[in-house]
Hints:
The structure is a single chain. The chain is of the alpha/beta class. The protein contains 10 helices and 12 strands. It binds adenosine-5'-triphosphate.
Amino acid sequence: MNAQAPFVTPDGRTIGDVLMDMRNITLRFGGVEAIKDISFDIREGEIRAIIGPNGAGKSSMLNVISGFYNPQEGEVWFRGAKRPPMKPYQVARLGIARTFQNIALFEGMSVLDNVMTGRLTHMKTGMFSQALWMGKAEREEVQNREFVENIIDFLEIQAIRKTPVGRLPYGLKKRVELARALAAEPKLLLLDEPMAGMNVEEKEDMSRFILDVNDEFGTTIALIEHDMGVVMDLSDRVVVMDYGRKIGDGTPDEVRNNEQVIDAYLGVAHD
Ligand SMILES: Nc1ncnc2c1ncn2[C@@H]1O[C@H](COP(=O)(O)OP(=O)(O)OP(=O)(O)O)[C@@H](O)[C@H]1O
């Protein structure tokens, strides 16, 4: 990848080269154009938000990034290479992990076991050696377990590591989902409405953890969020979508003062 001029955010943070480059993406569902010729990039180490009214195409965009949908037109570039159409598990192996708008955890399993499932992409030994519990499989299991325990500590969920997820309050379930995504050691972490349905205190906790993950692990984060206070506080840069088109792209201040964005989305109520 060519070195590019570093991008310095208004609060003085320097963010790196382009990690993900979406070029002229168009996605159709039959006659519906969910994404219309959108281009934007995600730079190494930044927190990038995608915002817009309901039905604007945000989830569709996240699904293109995660490989769940393959666009009819346009190119997806990741770490300096054009990504061919792929299945989500192949995209996960490239280092892209995600959380979902509606929590997708195994309710009957413990927190620890749920977070361990996020580690599956890193398990290298085959079924055969695992079945025979050969040395290599054992070493790998120990290392993966250690990695997962560190994440559990980091997100302060040690006290509930043995608790079945189904018994946890909503805010903690969201944190477990974040832990599971982090267990995959992603280069790019996608968060689909991480604050949806949370109370003020839970939102504050989640915001802090998102910032800590970005700081401590240097993980690049792209998120969809409707809470504008949270978006403006957390993000380095924001893409704004409306009816499948991109209508704004820039720092939180630039986006906040963009007339088209104000008319389509922010209005008065969100100020
Ligand atoms: N699987 C699908 N099949 C057909 N149409 C779809 C599909 N997924 C999304 N759409 C349509 O694409 C458009 C964009 O939807 P999308 O869910 O991406 O928007 P969004 O911005 O994420 O909305 P929200 O904020 O409500 O989650 C909508 O018109 C939606 O009805």
